Structures are given as C-alpha cells and as structure tokens.
Amino acid sequence: MTATNDQFDHYQVFDQEQGPLIENLAEIRSSCPVQHSDAHGGFWAIFGYENVGQIARDPSAFSSMGGATIPSHGFPMPLPPIESDPPRHKMYRGPMLPIFSPPAVEKLTDSMREMVTRLIDGFCTRGEADLAGELTIPFPGMTIGLIMGVPNDEIEQLKGWTRELMLDISNAPAIGEALAFFTDLYERRKAEPKDDFPSLVIGLEIDGEPISPEECLAVYAMVTFAGLETTANSSSHIFDLLSQRTDLRDELVADPTKIPTALEELLRYTSPLPASARTVSEDIDFMGEPLQAGDRVLLNWISANHDPAEFESPSEIKLDRFPNRHYVFGVGSHRCLGVHLARAQLRILVEEVLRRIPDYEVQSNEVERYIGVTRGIGRLPIKFTPTAASA
Ligand code: HEM
Fold first, then answer.
1. Measured in angstroms, how far is the CA atom of residue 347 from the centroid of ligand 1?
2. Is residue 389 assigned to a domain?
3. 35 CB under 6 A from ligand 1?
4. How many whole angstroms from 154 Cα to the centroid of ligand 1?
5. What is the tally of structural domains in the chain?
C-alpha cells in the first residue's frame, strides 16, 4: 500500500526551531521513511541515511535533469552542473574542479581573512551588530565576487535576486534580471577573456561542441546562487547555536585548533541546506513503494544527518565526533563542488569571530528567520564587549 502523507511539506516542516524539527523528522523517519506528499504538485519524500544515500548515488535511476528543487525553479533552462546527468555532468564539472580545489582555495585564504577582518572592524567598536547583515551575508558575496571577477556593488544586486529566488524559486522578475546580468557578464568576457571563472566556462567543450551561450548563463547562475546563501546561512546558524551553547563556544575559544573538526559536527547538526530533488527515470520499486518515471523525489539530507543508524546519539553535539560522514554537502557525483571553499570560509569566520568578540550574545527574540531552499537567517542581532578595530 502506498504510504501517503498529504501533510508533508518541507517548506512548513523545515520552518521550525532546531529541537522540534529534529524530533519531528525522527518520528517521520521511523514511521514512514518513503512517503508520498501531494504538496507542490506531488512528490516522494525520502528520509533516513541509507535511503537518501542510495538515491543520491544512483543518477541513472534518479535524474537531476528535472530540477534540483521542489517545486522546480522558473529558469527557462536546466542549471548545470547540478541539473545535468552523466556523461554530460562530468563535462561541466571536470574542468571546474581546479578552480574549487584545495590548492586554489588555499590561494584565496589571505584575501578571505582580510575581508572578514575588515567586516568585523566595521562593527567591533560598537558592542552590537547584525552579524548576518554585517558579516555572514556580505562575506560570501565578496568571495563570489572574487571568483566571478565581479565588483562588490554588482554583487549586491546578485545577492538581492538570490534572496528573492531562495524565497520563491520561480520569481520571474528576479530570474529575468539575473539572466540579463549574466548575459552582460558573458558578453564582456567573450569580448575580453580574463583569468576567471566566467572565462573558463566560455571555453568549455560539451559533447565535442563549444558550450552554448545559454548554458554559460545557466552555469554562472547555478554557481553564484550555490555560493551565496549556503555559506551565509550555515555560518549564521552556527553562530546562533554557539551563543546558546556557550559551553561549546568556550571550548573552541580555549582551543581554536578544534574548530575544523567541530565545524563538521555543527554543520551536521544544523544542516542548513535541508533537501535536494531528483526525478525518477523509469518505473522502480523503492522500499516497497511504486515510484513511476517522472515522479519527483525529495532527498531529506537533514533527516539523513540525524539518523541514529549512522550517527550515535544524533541530537547530541559532539565537537570531536568521528567518523562524521554527514551529507551536508550531498553525496555521489553531485557532491558540493564548493565544499573546500565553504569549509575555508566557515573556518575563517568562526576563528575570527571567536577571537575578536568571544562573548557575543545573540538577541534571540530579534532574530529574523526564513525558509526557502536553505534554512535562512536574515538578521542576527548580537551584543558583545566592544573591542578595538584591527591596525
Ligand atoms: C556550507 C555551504 C554549502 C552547503 C551546505 C552546500 C551544499 C550542497 C549540496 C547538498 C549539494 C548537492 C546537491 C545535490 O546533490 O542535488 C551541493 C552542490 C553544489 N554546490 Fe554546494 N554547498 C555549499 C557551498 C557552496 C559554495 C561556496 C559553492 C561555490 C561557490 C557551491 C557550489 C555547488 C555546486 C556547483 C554544486 C553542484 C555540483 C554538481 O552538481 O556537480 N556550494 N552543495
């Protein structure tokens, strides 16, 4: 019998405080790990570490071409590399790997630390700030600007459109304006190539043919959107959590070398990008449920990341958890291309905030949250002991 839950709607379920959300997901995972929902045109919601991993590792049965989100976005074309399947997927992703490799990220580290230092300088003498608006949102924008070769004032526009799309993935004006922006970027780089990401994409060959202008715009859009809200919201959630759990924060302040390992656990616990989508390629029986070609499937990463079958006491935060094979960055061939960049950004952010304003307190009743493709924090007001700006 088909398990049906007309009520499951990720936009509503993920819009809860962390504690109730984890409890709610645990209940769903144990009672009905594969269930059909009628929300958003109908889809199968998949819960649990093994189920989610199995589907993510099987791109021939579960395609990414039908869209990485539910509901699908309103762009007039798929957005590779995330919305592409083998063998084309590798043709987009392979040539981009060096730009996001550990050595390439290492080269950006000094500039990124300098950005964070300047942003913290902007508020550290005041004793209060909006940590999201003044740090965690602008910083990924500046980093993406560096990679895309786009100045800061232009990135501001991109951040605006990205936020609108995170809230409403088919927002036509935001899509139109973003595509016009990327068309202009494409034409500038076509006329005058630079040593940057947009020029590299223009040079790609897909299936023996030069990449089309439309595909270039799609890749620019995908990578830009992927890099903006994800890092911003991950770091905001982590700062919010560390303000509630000062015991954990004190441990990291006392020994910052624990930060990289601790970040994996804080990411697992908060799971800022809670789910991604696939489309069933051909009729298949999955866990006794009759999935049909064309059915949409929602992989609940956050449920996998809290599955006791993989993580002992998953609702406990163990800063030195090992192993910690979470799916925060996905799994399989579409695993996050920006994983090394994201980890470096988060490390720098947490190191610098804990070094310079270690006693910050989030004003929890003033925090502004939203739910979209990511679990978002739009405002994160904090108070702290004022400190001098850096020399
Ligand atoms: C903490 C921050 C981040 C999180 C939690 C995150 C999460 C994810 C997840 C879960 C996927 C897999 C989606 C799927 O399988 O459908 C993914 C893919 C991807 N991410 Fe990230 N991401 C982050 C940061 C970034 C950054 C900074 C960039 C680049 C600037 C980036 C670029 C991408 C790209 C291009 C893909 C698609 C890869 C492919 O299809 O081969 N991400 N990300």
1. 17
2. no
3. no
4. 22
5. 1
234 ligand 1 Cβ < 6 A: yes
Are 229 and 166 a contacting pair, CB within 8 Å? yes
| Angle, helices 339-356/213-244, rounded to nearest 10 degrees | 30
Query: Can you give the residue range of the structural domain that contains 331?
Result: 10-383
How long, in residues, is the chain?
A: 391
pLDDT of residue 153: 87
**C-beta 334 within 6 A of ligand 1:** yes
Q: Locate tokens 């909006």: which residue?
A: 130
Q: Ligand 1: which of 329, 345, 374 to mutate, most ligand atoms within 8 Å of CB? A: 329
Ligand 1 centroid vs 124 CA: distance in angstroms? 31
388 lies in some domain: no
Read off the CATH number of the domain in which 328 is found: 1.10.630.10
Please give the pLDDT value at position 344.
98
Closest atom, ligand 1, to C-alpha of 64: 16
Supply the pTM of this predicted model: 0.96
DSSP string computed for 128-186 = EEEHIIIIITHHHHHHHHHHHT--HHHHHHHHHHHHHHHH-TT-HHHHHHHHHHHHHHH
6-22: per-residue pLDDT in tens? 578 999 999 888 999 99
Read off the pLDDT of residues 198-229 as tens digits, 9 standing for 90 and up.
Answer: 999 999 999 999 999 999 999 999 999 999 99
DSSP per position, 1-39: ---B-TT--HHHHTSS-HHHHHHHHHHHHHH-SEEEE-G
User: Of all helices (H) and strands (E), which one includes residue 276?
Assistant: strand 275-280
Residue 383's pLDDT is what? Answer: 98
Mutate which of 54, 159, 197, 336 to test ligand 1's pocket (most atoms within 8 Å of Cβ)?
Answer: 336
